[in-house]
Design goal:
Strand order of the largest sheet of chain B: 3-2-1-4-6-5
Shape of chain B: globular
Enzyme class (chain A): transferase
Helix content of chain A: 10-25%
Low-confidence stretches of chain A: 414-428
CATH topology of the largest domain in chain B: Rossmann fold
Organism (chain A): Hymenobacter taeanensis
Structural class of chain A: alpha+beta
GO molecular function, one term (chain A): GTPase activity
Oligomer: heterodimer
CATH superfamily of the largest domain in chain A: P-loop containing nucleotide triphosphate hydrolases
Radius of gyration of chain B: 19 Å
Order of helices and strands of chain A: EHHHEEHEHEHEHEEEEEEEEEEEEEEEEE
Helix content of chain B: 25-40%
Mean pLDDT of chain A: 87
Low-confidence stretches of chain B: none
Keywords (chain A): ATP-binding, GTP-binding, Nucleotide-binding, Nucleotidyltransferase, Transferase
Distance between the termini of chain A: 36 Å
Order of helices and strands of chain B: HEHEHEHHEEEHEEEEHHH
Mean pLDDT of chain B: 86
Number of domains of chain B: 2
Strand content of chain A: 25-35%
Domain Tr-type G (chain A): 1-211
Distance between the termini of chain B: 45 Å
Number of strands of chain B: 10
Number of strands of chain A: 23
Amino acid sequence: MDLLRFITCGSVDDGKSTLIGRLLYDSESVSLDVLAALEKRQASNGTVDLALLTDGLRAEREQGITIDVAYKYFTTPRRKFIITDAPGHVQYTRNMVTGASNADLAIVLVDARQGVIEQTRRHTLIAALLGIRHFVLAVNKMDLVGYDEAVFAKIATDYAELTNHFNLPAAVAIPLSALQGDNVVTHSTHLPWYTGPSLLEHLESVPGTLERSAEPRFQVQYVIRPQTAELPDYRGYAGQIQSGEYRRGDRVLVLPSGLESEIEALEVSQQEVEAAAAPQAVVIRLRDDVDVSRGDSIVPLGQQPTITRELEATLCWMSEQPLWPGRKLLVQHHSTLVKAAIPAILYKVNVQTFAKAAAESAQLNDIVRVRIKTALPLAVDTYQENRVSGSFILVDELSGDTVAAGLVEAANSEYFTAPVAPPVAFSI
Amino acid sequence: MSTPHFDYLDRLEAEAIHILREVAGQFERPALLFSGGKDSIVLTRLAEKAFRPGRFPFPLVHVDTGHNFPEVLDYRDELAARLGEKLIVRSVEETIKRQRLREPGGKYPSRNPLQTYTLLEVIEEFEFDACIGGARRDEEKARAKERIFSVRDEFGQWDPKRQRPELWNVYNGRIQKGENVRVFPISNWTELDVWRYIQRENIQLPDIYFGHERTCVVLPSGQLLGLSEHLQLDDDDEIVTRQVRFRTVGDSTCTAAVESDASTVEDIIQDLLLAKVSERGATRLDDNISEAGMEDRKRNGYF
């Protein structure tokens, strides 16, 4: 059985948590004891508040809003799902980015009474920026507009204009009511004019997690050296294949040092294999005794990423403390941690229109394009080419906090003028 | 060449191994919290896959409440010996004496809240900077909110409003002195996933997970609690002998059994597919104290 990870987004009060509650409830994925706890807290009109299935924190129940990402799991006979319930409140956009970074599909909720609003645009564009290609437009609260087909059609058209304008794949639009259960799991008699799939039917049938046909990428997480009497010379480079496929006998480069070798053995779960592919966790052994440490990349000869100490990136700034040009930070590019500086903010992105505007600083939840210089060379691809080797986070050296999500937009090796230094282990 | 197909168990396994290796790469003194229950047993199998033929880059640490099932303690010692890995055991009993804590009273005296004290002591004693645990997000709604790398302050406290964003599979383990990180590699697994993995990997478990005859006291809720010396029984308590198994292995004083004839992992999976009650709902006596029972305990340093 395969897996689909999806995120729900849209404005606060659009009913995201209720929709997830309804999906779980109508697909009979809620246990009796959890239901009993829910019923204990039912509203004065006697209805069960399905949002309480996901709003798990005290403060969320107090305020009736979602503050942090919740993960929920359910399975139908056709597929297994991981739901990321992300907050809709503007203040918590960074948590929406957190959720979108691991999703294959986004359900964008719109309140039928409100239509496409600023937050719809913001969330759609952030999801698109993070590489999501499957969009569902869920026009919710159809019960509050008399299940009017014209209302739905207008919103679907408005949204199609938005996706067209930004060159996004067309969204599948579904009219529904999360509160009443119309078209979430079962088809509704209230919406006879709608002949498409229910939300769950659609989720069960869209293509799932697919490895894109990207070039092979592998980063060393940990060096296995037993140094026992039986295995005195064993050196295995443990890590996860980030993309593509590796085979025994492949000629490879170790980056950033540029040393060449050959894959002598490939191990998965302590078994030697001929080939392995993303997302498998493997151990690679090389034929030559070259210097390899945590953070180094091992890639096939002729398919190397860009080695650079200067790149352009889009940042989702996630800290209350603004970013000013000149700031020094740490770049964590998966298993590599290097010191970095941001000499320039090139522009700020208007998250409603994606228009570029001049910016002196980046404030919380801003999306900015910056230039980054790193103390040691990184092996990167652009985010568009590779969602793994093109992504990184920025970390505040003093507090240790994650202050930004980074997407590599351009990494030009021509920036790179100094000779490649021998690899320096900077363990994290 | 066609892309090989990986099912969701392959993906969950790969994700968990990746997380374990990040712990090994990022921290100086990690530990694996091992209770002898199915989730921590699965963690040891994942650690074998992550680090063999080398040794684990962390010891197994058991916080022994003194109310454990004896079968589980035997299993714990055998497993540590078979793996050839270091096992550290610290006892809640000792903490109670040293810190002059008050033993919980009542008919079913749970030492669960006291575990936190011992856990924080052992973290301090060995200066652990990361503690790997087998908690899953499907267990409870506060857990559903927790990050995979969960930063705790020097008192072990979790602040759900100040969690770090966690992007892609990039895990940030940078901390200040005194802080530590709780790491949950099987966050995205469900109870059923754990059992399917146990089946696929043919992992041996303590006997109490399988149907067996046991003398139990019937609780007012109808739940069955295995009889043990730690319970304070009254004359009118109903004592029965039933065919039961345990869905989760916590303290014998707060972990209820479920009636079951399941004698194999396959039987248990069939049981679960039909189960209408969640794992914690069926078995734990300590989560239902208040709406935010788990959240509050985690805020106080519970793992």
